[in-house]
Amino acid sequence: MVDYIIAGGGPAGCVLANRLSEDPTVSVLLLEAGGLDRHFLFHMPAGFAKMTKGIASWGWSTVPQRHMQDRVLWYTQAKVIGGGSSINAQLYTRGNRADYDEWAGEHGCSGWSYEEVLPYFKRAEDNQSFVNDYHAYGGPLGVSNPLAMLPICDAFFRAAQELGIPYNHDFNGAVQDGIGPYQLTQKNGRRSSASVAYLNPIRDRKNLTVASGANVLRVVVEKGRAVGVEYALEGSGQKLVARADREVIVTAGAIGSPRLLMLSGIGPADHLRSVGIEPVHDLPGVGSNLQDHLDLFVIAECTGDHTYDNYAKLHRTAWAGLQYLLFKRGPAASSLFETGGFWYADKTARSPDIQFHLGQGSGIEAGVAKMSNPGVTLNSAFLRPRSRGTVRLASADPAAMPLIDPNYWEDPYDRRMSIEGLKLAREIVRQKALEPFVMREVLPGPDRMTDEDLFHYGCANAKTDHHPAGTCKMGVDPMAVVAPDLTVHGLPGLRVCDSSVMPRVNSSNTNAPTIMIAEKAADHIRGRAMLPKVTLNRQAAAARSAVPQEVSA
Fewer CB atoms near the end CB (10 Å): N or C, the chain? Predict the structure, then answer.
């Protein structure tokens, strides 16, 4: 018997394991289905390019996307301690302040406005560059500026400014709008995953047990209360039961958390019966409200060796490895997507609705035509989709892949805005500042110019940005799964804490917000949720109102 069981060792699970075990009078058990992050690729920033192609992944894919000509998309979900924070591109972005104000105002999530969550972002942060109203240092999570930007990145900044998009040195500051370098979850040239930041420093706590290779099969419910979990240790075939005296906390991610709840009989009763699971707690919102950022990209051939493509050659790979080992510099210290920004596809949008990522190479994306010279990639993702999808079970077998349906482009607005974002990316690549670096556009290619052409290109080439959210949403409406304190509606002893609780996906990458959610959840669990400590100054509001709302032609 322990006090708290945390089911899932992703970003939120690592944060909660740290914060809850700060109290030496409680015991904490963290269960993670994947293995430990011992391989060097987990810690070398450039290793992420290998990760999203299958290493440390569940190997899942979507169901055919009926609004994208039945395309099936590879859907990487991490299977390793640290979860997505151990395999992602390390971008530290929080989204827009309006995202959180919408959570609090429109979705009934009291306590989750921007000013109320900002102290938790700051508590997590060990920022190597910024200390101000928006940033802090001394927290567990290393946040730093890129170490390995190439000259083509500066040209990209100038090209965007030629198009009317301003430069922004801090997307998490007073304004999100603009183009510039991303801050990264890195410290001293190494990835700062949630495992490294939150778990490694506290491994010797006697009141914390971390079990890897422990696949949680179901939440155990007795007399209307969650009392523990059943799990299987990898390779043993043995099923074990762990009991929690206080709470079970599900932190398995936006796909894994609703999947685990449904396997436990917690979810939409009709669906559960259809796959042979007897409902324990009818909760219709479990697995609904799935949102994700769909990514389209431009790939151009360069005029010379301006990106990291040629480091795939053996002798240059060896040199890059030596640079990294000796100096923590060079290509291996790059996340490969270190620069980008936020702008508008819909000129009437309340805040930026497109996110750009400049990839310092072309082989990063699968299925790219071979080029004689190195290439460069510019991704564009639509940030506020109106389409809603589902996570469902294919069967009652815990080993079966879930039915993941992001339902991309169900709403025609999403399709239009995605295409507008792709057009913006093409325009940036064509600007004068990039002429010395870019020879020609390869994808989508000069033969694809109409919206219909770009729709077909998107159906064939779009990918997920790996930002699923919303499937156990927080709120007070009939489809809400958890309350604002993240307790599951109508089922004592159980909370959910990860990106699945977002009522609406934030307007950026999801790692930093997930860590913030867990920081705040820890205080809810301990009965000391923080009140806002910061009243943002008037200069921030003035800066926001001064940002242009139209894209120059």
Answer: C
Q: Which residue has the tokens 């040629």?
A: 310
Two structure tokens written together for 273: 């019966």
Exposure on the CB side of residue 454, measured as CA atoms within 13 A: 20
pLDDT at 541 over 60: no
Q: What is the mean pLDDT of the chain?
A: 92
Higher pLDDT, 210 or 535: 210
> Tell me, what amino acid is at 103?
W
Task: Please say whether the dihedral angle defined by the alpha carbons of residues 534, 539, 543 and 546, taken in this order, is positive or negative.
Answer: positive
Please provide the CATH number assigned to the domain covering 1-51+77-142+190-292+396-401+469-553: 3.50.50.60
pLDDT confidence band for 210 (50 / 70 / 90): very high
Listed residue (67, 72, 85, 71) closest to 11, CA to CA: 85
Percent of the chain at pLDDT above 70? 91
Residues with active-site annotation? 467
pLDDT value of position 546: 42
Give which of 471, 445, 472 is closest to 460, Cα–Cα.
445
Q: Which residues contact 356 (CB under 8 A, 6 or more apart)?
A: 160, 179, 340, 341, 342, 343, 378, 379, 380, 424, 425, 428
Cα separations in angstroms, 110 against 101, 134, 421, 533: 10, 21, 33, 16
Burial grade of 115 (CB within 10 A; 0-12, 13-18, 19 or more):
middle
| Arithmetic mean of pLDDT, 257-264 | 98
* Residue range(s) in the chain whose domain bears CATH number 3.50.50.60: 1-51+77-142+190-292+396-401+469-553
pLDDT band at residue 365 under the 50/70/90 scheme: low
pLDDT reported for residue 370: 57
Would you state the pLDDT for residue 228?
A: 98
Q: Which helix (H) or strand (E) holds 210?
A: strand 208-212
Residue range(s) in the chain whose domain bears CATH number 3.30.410.40: 147-181+294-382+409-461
Amino acid identity of 452? Answer: E
**CB distance 115 to 535 below 8 Å:** yes
Mean pLDDT of 195-199: 98
CATH number of 147-181+294-382+409-461: 3.30.410.40
Mark 261-279 as b/e (b = at least 16 C-beta within 10 Å): bbbbbbbbbebbeebebeb
φ, ψ for residue 7, nearest 5 deg:
-100, 90
Give the CA diameter of the chain: 70
Q: What is the tens place of the pLDDT at every residue in 120-129? A: 999 999 999 9
